Structures are given as structure tokens and as C-alpha cells.
Amino acid sequence: MKKISLLVLFSFLLGLFLITPLYASTLRVGIEQEAVGLDPNIVTAFASFRRIELLYNRLVTYDASMKVIPDLAESWDTPNNTTYIFHLRKGIKFHDGKELTAQDVKFTFDRILNPKTGSPARAYLKNVKTIEVLDPYTIKITLDQPVASFLVGLASGNCSIVPKHTVEELGNLQRKENGTGPYKLSKWVPDNYMEFTKNEAYFEKGKPYIDKVVYKVIPDQMSMYTALKGKSLDLAIIRSGSVLKLAEKDKDIVVVKVPGINVHTFGYNLKRKPFDNLYVRQAIASAIDREEIVKTAAFGFGKPTGPIPIAASYWAIPPEELPFGKPDLKKAKELLKKAGYENGLSFKILAANKYKLADIAQVIQAQLKRVGINTQIEIVEWGMYVNRWKKRDYDAIVELRGGSPDPDRFLYRMVYTNGPVNNFFFSDKEIDKLLDEGRVLTDPKERKKIYDKVQYLLAERAPIVFLYSPTVSVAHRKGLEGFKLIPNESLLYIKDTKIEK
Amino acid sequence: MSTYIIKRLLIIFPLLLGISIVVFFVSHLIPGSAMEIFMGTQVEATPEQVAELKKIFGEDKPLIVRYFEWVKDLLKGDFGVSLRTSRKVLPDIMARLPLTVELTILSLTLAVLIGIPIGIYAALKHNPLVSLIIRIGSLLGLSIPQFWLATMLILFFARYFHMSDIGNFVPFFENPIGNLKFMLLPSISMALGMASVLVRFTRTSMLEVLGADYIRTARSKGLSEGVVLKKHALKNALLPVITVIGFYAGYLLGGAIVIEEIFALPGIGRLMLYAIEKRDYPVIQGTVIIVALLFIFINLLVDILYGIIDPRIRYE
Fold first, then answer.
1. Of A136, A286, A350, B121, whose CB neighbour count within 10 A is largest?
2. Can you tell me the distance from the alpha carbon of A108 to that of A100, in angstroms, rounded to the nearest whole number?
């Protein structure tokens, strides 16, 4: 008798070890990094945005193809190209039950514009002249000049609308949330997991479908994959090419891929020799083979791009249709000769062990060697990399640039003379003039003509080689329905996802 | 003995002062700052915004002033606020400490249970084949990198048993079975290398002791082999082994960064790694101070253990 009960106990314990419970109404998501903070107007980390997009809403948002669609604002009028009137949905409640009104929207934008807040979204709103509350559900914003990318800026996670009363009470929202989003934060164990519960009062009727979402922090990509395979996760953010290859072969796992909006670039400090020489830059551009970089450094998970992110398909011209966009070693050597460097030249490439920058640098090194350019790669730790980026302390640098579906948003800050993230010292009057024109035009056809020209000029003057856009990817188990991935890596559409039982 | 302990305890203060100076200035010497990393390379900011951020991150004051402010707060028991998460530093460290302590205890226990018996066995048996196997085995255990072993263990269990607990960590007192189940693989990954070191140390030290005069004397006065081994040989042979274990315990309490990263364990190691990555000075400094304190206490403990095992070391 005693033996039998021991046996039962033992098999019970064994059962505990082996059975992983099936949660049909819970979605377990594996994510690489812990959120730094949760205040939507303040944070800069990608990891924070992945949480904020479930908790808050913006006036407008993106659909899966990154088109701007209504979010908190049901509709908007533009009586002229510097005035926007937004009509808010009625009856939207913050998670604490208080209703969202135009006052909260005004408060949020004033907060972003206040330099003391230190909000990265200030750049999106810097042309705002006045913000007027017309009635509790209508708000009027006027700009000091037309800004074609204004709505795209408002769709940024940093422009999420926050509750006036909570910010006034707490000072900031880094640790506590009170949003209007599809999920509420119910538990947060730092560096371990974050649990979200369905917001029953969410304004999209019937959504979200899943009751509970748990974000688990798993830094190692291989561990992430095995957790998915071992059914500890339902969805995992996997970026590593080698692990994705493994996941793609797995019949129980679905890999979702979309072309990303971010761009890897290879740029120079144009104040240093030999990069002040146009022929040298064109020679380097001709020596670089984008396809090979994608294949080798990213295991094929990327798409070659020109000066406008290839995912912004309305605007982007594929690199092979632009000057110096195709690898041509003969031309590269001729150009080097023209520049006076027929005996070769050498410089250093700065890269960090993050976002594949070091891998890309190595492929570029090999490609440049083919035309007699000798390079030395400096791989530094991320903090050091940022430090040297700020000081412009490099010959050449491999980067990952945050992209945007709007060409003005992406190019103005990067290539306009003294643009805020123009760390190349690039300055070109002709391009500046075109960028100024493109910024204020609101007719897409006219704008497209201008940005076509900009793309040709940038490819020809080659201050930067735009390499490729890394593929945005997640892997999930079979049986998830309705999940959509956006090129900006947002997991917002978890709200449309159903789990098949 | 007690004066010895008091003396050792008094040394802690100058030691901590030295550590505080070193950790503060070294962590601030690393290029890049918390604010720069917060901004990254893709955020636009006007000079006035940058100045405002510098104030928020406390980077507007000279380094030496910041050091004295920090020490002043530290003496009041205030470890400051994290620049990365704006949470208080000390509770965050304390929340992670139990995991690190548990991992240390589990992997040390495993290592001792595997390493010492094998080491003794290897010293006693003069079978060349057995000693060759043990030597090769321990060399292998010593050479296999932890990260490789950890990844292989994870893959193996996921592939053949469809078992993976990554991301399911629960504290011991909440769910002991779930916790131990989860901690098994990380502990094994860490224990193997240590066990190999222990095998080698135990074996060498045991062989040395077995050749000593007092063992011959013990045998010649007719004691049974068991008593000779247990009472005379083992006790003396374990002295250097305890030193190694003490060293490892201190080392492990500093956090097993690689293992914590692979198994997604929220321990001290990862806290420190992320703090360094983000130049989160208060967290780096606080963690180092706490770990240093633990290290000092473990060393003290080892010294006391010495005294218990070998009365000759009970100091004047």
C-alpha cells in the first residue's frame, strides 16, 4: 500500500515536470529586452515602445502597410495646409475610468513641446504654432509652415496621448501606466516578465480577443527559439538570421517576415581625407555589393535599398536603378585612378557589436579589398560607439538608421546641412533646396518628382552608401490567427490576434 | 580568535572606501555617458534640450562633486536611483540577490558532490586506466565553455524531450518545484567546470597528504584504513579545497553573466551587465559595493572554517 502511494506521488511529481499547461486565452511573447520605462512621451528604447503600443493610443496610427489611419481621432479636416482639425472618438476611457478629452491631447502636446520634458517627439511637433481646444472632442492645431509628414510624426509612439490628471499627480509615467490602449498593465517583475490584461472598455468593439498577454524577457536568441519549440512561448521576436533559418525549417513554427523600415548605412566623415574626394566615394559605392551583404551578414533577411527605405514603396527607387547602385569593380578601379589613388588607399571603419554592424563591416572590408582599398575595422562597445558618433570621431562608420515611411522625416534630418543627425558633415545646396521644397508640398505626385531627384543626386554624390533594410520578423506557433507585423516592428496588432483552441 | 575576527571586520571600512573610489572613477572613465546612450544616434535634440537632459542625468556637475555626493548618500544607506529605470537601486539589487545566491548554492553543491568524491577516488585508486579517464574527463570539463554547454543542454532538452522552461522562472518560495526544475540546467552548466577544478585539487592535495609522515604514523600504530582516511587524511587534504570553494562562492555571487543571459535569469549578473551597457552609474556602483561586501564576508568565513578544521591556524 505504502509502495503504491509512493508510486502515485512520484508519478504525480513527474507529471508536474513534464506537462506544460496549455493557456488558450493567454499569449506568451518572448522579447529580447526589458522596458526601460513606460512614459510614452519620454522613452527612446525600442523595447519600451513594444509595451507602450499595447497600453496607449495616438491620434492616428499605422495600418500593416504603414499607411496613416485613424486611432483616437475618428477623422480630421485640413482647411488649409497649415491647419489640422481633429475630431476625437467619443466615450474613450483611460484605464482608470476617466474619459479622454481634447484637454488631454493639448496637455500631451504641450508636454512634448516643453524642453524640460526631454521628449524625443519634440522634433515631430516643432512646427506647431498653436493648439486650441474647440470643444471636448475637437482640437485644432496650426503650423508655422506646411509639413507634409506631420501626420506620420503624430503616429509615432512618442506622440501617444497621456492623461493630464495622472501626469500631474505622478510627475511622469515611467513606472505606472494609465493609457487608453487595448491592454492594461497588471503585473511587472523587472527583467523577468510583464503581464497585460484585456481592457474591457477598449473603443474597438470586441477587441482585443486574447484576455491576457505576457511579455517574457529572454535575451538569448537560441534560447528564444527553444522556448517557442518547447511551448513556453506562443510568439517570439527572433531577429538573428541563423536562428530564423532554423525556425523556418520547423513545421510547428510559422515565421512572419516583412521588409523593415530601418536602413543600414555606410557613411563617412566628409571632413577627413580621402572622403572629400567625390571619385573616391563613387568608387566605394561601385565596389559595394548590397546583395552579398544581405546574404552574408543577414542570412538573406533583408532587402537592398537606396536613399529612401525600400519599404516606403511609393517613394523608394531600388538601388540598381540609381547611379553607382550596382557593383562594378572595373568602374570602381577607374574612379580610384581618376581620384589619384591607383596604388590603393586605406582607412578605418567604426562598428559596434550590435544590430549586425560588425558583421556588415566585415563584408564591406572584403568587398573594398577587391578594388585595392585596405580597411581596418574597429569594433567597439555600444556606449563607446555612441560617444564617438557624437564626436564624429571616425573615418567611415556602419550604422542602423531609424527609417520612416515619409521621405522628409527620413532624409531631412540626415542629409540637410547641419541636420540634427547629419553626422557626415554633408552639405549640398541643391539637395537642401529640394528637401525644403519637398517638406512643404502636400500633393503626393509633385512631391514624388522632387524626392526622385533627391534620390538620384544622393546616389551620384554618394556621401553615404545606403545598404539594406533588415527584414522585420517574428516566429510564432501554429494556430495564431490575425497577427500582422508592421515594418516598424510594432506588435500593435496583437489586438487583432486570436488563438485557435 | 575573536580579536582576529574583530580585526578582520575593522579592515572592511578602508577596504570599502578604496573600492568606492575605484568603482566610481573607473565606471565614469568608460567613454560614453548615461545621457549619451539614452539619446542614442537617432534622436534629435536642441542644445537647450541636451542641457536639460544633462541636469536630469546629473552630468552637469564635476566628477569629484558627484563622488562625494554619492558617498554621502551611501553612508546614509541610500544607494541612489537608477538612471535607466528610475527605480531605487538597493531594492532592485536585493530583489535579484536571492536568485544569484540560489544559483551559487545549487551549483556549488553539485560541484562539491561530483568533484570531491571523484577527486578522492582518483587519489586512492592507482588503476592507470581509471586515473586516465578521470584526468581526461576533468580536463574536458574544465575546457568546455559554459555558454556552449548551456546552449547544448537547452537544445538537447528541447529537441528530444520537448522540454523548455526558458522564461518560466519563478522564485523558490512561490513554487519550489517549478523553481528547481528551472534552475537545474543553469546549475549543471555552471557546476561542471567547477567540479573539474575540484577533482584536480582534491586529488593533488589528497596525494600529498597521503605521502605525509603522520599518515604513515597513523597506519603504523594500527588504525584502520577508514579512520586514517577520514580523521587524518581527508581533514588535512580539504584545506586547500575549501579555499577554492570559497573563492568560487565569492566569484559566483558576483553573478554569472553568461549563464543568466542564456537562461533569461533575473540575477545580479544581468543587472550589472545592463547597467554597464547603459552607463547606469548608481547601479554599477551599488552592485559592486554589495558584491564586494559579500566577497569579504565569504573570505572571513573561509578563514574561520580554516581555524575549525586546523587548530594550528587559530591565530594569536
1. A286
2. 12
